[in-house]
Each structure stands twice: as structure tokens, then as C-alpha cells.
Amino acid sequence: MKKxxxxxxxxxxxxxxxxEGILASGDAEVWSLCDCNAKALLAKGxxxxxPASRRYTNHLDMLKDPELDAVTIGTPNSNHFAIxxxxxxxxxxxxxxxxxxxxxxxAAVLKRELEANPLPHMVxxxxxxxxxxxxxxxxIELGSLGTINHVYSQYLQSWGIREDIPLVWRFRKExxxxxxxxxxxxxxxxxxxxxxxxxxxxxxxAGTIVKERxxxxxxGKGEVDVDDFCHVLSRFESGASASMSISRFAYGRGNYxxxxxxxxxxxxVYNLEEEDTIHxxxxxxxxxxxxxxxxxxxxxxxxxxFNLLNExxxxxxATIEDGYINQLTIDRIIQSxxxxxxxxxxxxxxxx
Length: 352
Ligand SMILES: NC(=O)c1ccc[n+]([C@@H]2O[C@H](COP(=O)([O-])OP(=O)(O)OC[C@H]3O[C@@H](n4cnc5c(N)ncnc54)[C@H](O)[C@@H]3O)[C@@H](O)[C@H]2O)c1
Prior knowledge:
By secondary structure, the protein is of the alpha/beta class. The chain has 10 helices and 17 strands. A hairpin with a 6-residue loop joins strand 15 and strand 16. The protein is globular. The termini are far apart. Bound molecules: nicotinamide-adenine-dinucleotide (NAD). Nicotinamide-adenine-dinucleotide (NAD) is lined by residues 9-15, 34-37, 40, 59, 74-77, 79, 97-98, 124, 126, 183.
């Protein structure tokens, strides 16, 4: 079968993951590259042997290529809306990084545009592809946990503690929308939603620990105006009560992600550090036991994108609708910690 010609937009950290997935698949090839930073473009173009004619500093020029089958969008959050919007207008399927936009209004526009002009697309909620998450979803759907009462989740990193890290885009609201919440919390909100359902109200506390950082490539310091940590209490539509702890300041933690889900008949613990494993206690079992996840639950994000493009998707990929609900919940959490009160998450309110 003909290989899918994939264009990679944004050539930073996450692009390496996108490119790895393309190179590992027999179904796709890195066709073209785009980055507004000419140095990054030159380096990646050379490394991957992409001809100069298919290296772009402007995404629109890339999207106009009639041979291009689809793109991955891995730029800072502030560019997601414009690039995804142009991809829709130019009929190019896309895999878009999370959070999908800067706010729910932008996200709603993308959703409406795709409703009017449906295209294969995916939102890169990467942890949906963990076998443990897929297995947990199956257990819950089978009713093995009974009615879910509680979800306790954590997503903890420590890199923010380093005060020598400059004021990169992740610390600036105008480029990121929010801090740890959008960066890490977006993943947890998506995971708990696919496992337990819709969140209907939230109350949150958030803060900034290091308030100023060096300006990158310039003299002086600039303000960090996003959250370094965010702690949320929430209720699901089902009535289940949840807590979510998100931080870039959790000493010693690299990429620590854990969900504990407690039902009336069983419980499960998923921890990202324990690949392809989950801990469960079901029914009358005396203790939590480790379950090695059967291989059929394994999946890869990029291969799933190519399957989707080849009309062989398994229906478990995140859509723009999922991205919109995620963004709306993020906005309501921001509203909650700004106003210091409970806030309702009402999807209908955003539909135009
Ligand atoms: N799914 C995941 O697990 C995961 C993990 C890391 C990052 N991300 C997401 O990926 C995105 C990028 O994060 P990153 O860590 O790779 O950032 P990064 O800063 O390492 O890289 C971003 C790249 O985009 C380029 N860029 C900026 N504006 C551009 C434009 N208009 N057109 C083309 N290129 C442009 C920059 O020059 C840079 O090379 C973010 O939205 C982030 O939330 C997702």
C-alpha cells in the first residue's frame, strides 16, 4: 500500500515522538517539515533527509501541497487554533496536540468547522494509548468495579523547581493559556473522562511558586503568569467525587501519573511508571494484586493515527469534541481558582 505522506508542524520536543512514530510505521513517511525557527528546520531536515523544497517556515505553504496526506501539529498551544483551522479549511487531516486551543471559544470554533467539513483527525491525548488505561476502561465497562464512588488522580513533575529554567512558552499565559493545568491536567481530565464520565462541577486551588524567570536570549526577567500547580475537587455526572493533583514542583518526580479508582465492588490503581501493569482488588479478593495487561490492549498513538487515516480506526482516538470538552473543563477550573468558588461545567453554554 502507498505510504501516507505526513507533514510535521513544530519541530520541538513532542515532534520527536511524532517522527519516531512515523519512522516506526510501515504505513507512513515523513514527507515535509515546518518550523518558524529556521535553525530547527535546517537541523531536522538534514537529519531526516527531507529535501529543501519540502521544508517550510510557514504552515500554510506546507498545507497547500497537494501531495501531502496529513499533518501533525506540535507547536506551542497559542498556535494550535490557527494551524488546525487552516488544516480544516484546506482539507488536510491532522493530529493536534493538547490542549487543543487557548480557550473553549477557540475550541468550539474548531468543533463547528469540523462538523461542517468532517475530516479524519485526532487529538493527541497520548495516555489513551497506554495498555493499562485501555484495560482499566474495559474493567469498568464490564462493571467489575461496580458503581464508581471516587477517583483520586495525580500528575506530578519536578522540573519547575529549577529556577535557572528561563521564561519559556510554558510559563507565559499568552502562549500557553494555562500552566501545569493545561500541560498535565489536560491529560488527567481526558483519562478520567474516558474512564468515569463527564465532570459537571469543579472547585480548584492553584498557584505560582517561582514568579519570575530569566528572559530567554535577552537581559532581565519576566513574569510567570500561569499556574505551577493546580489542585481540583470535582464531581462527575454519575455523582462520583474526585480529586486531581497537578504540579511541576513535586520534588523527585519525573513524569509521575497515577489514577486510583474506587467502586462499590472493586478498585484499580494505574501508575504510568509501571508499564503494561495495573493493580486491582475485585469482589472478595483479600488484597490488591498486580495484573499484567494482555498484549491485545497495546496500542500506539501514531500508528492509531495512520489507522484512522486508512479508515481502520478502533474508535478510541480523541476527537475535536473530546478536545473541546477538555478545554471547557480547563477554562472552568481556571474560573474556579480565579474566583475562589465552585463552577459548573456546562457544555451547552458554549454551543453557538
Ligand atoms: N501529548 C503529549 O504527551 C505531549 C507532550 C509534550 C508536549 N505536548 C504538546 O506539544 C506541543 C509542543 O510542545 P513541545 O514540548 O514540543 O514544545 P517545544 O517548545 O519543544 O517545540 C515547539 C516547536 O514549535 C515551533 N513553532 C512555534 N510556533 C510555530 C509556528 N507558528 N509554526 C511552526 N512551528 C512553530 C517552535 O519553533 C518549536 O520548535 C504543546 O502543545 C504541548 O502541550 C504534548
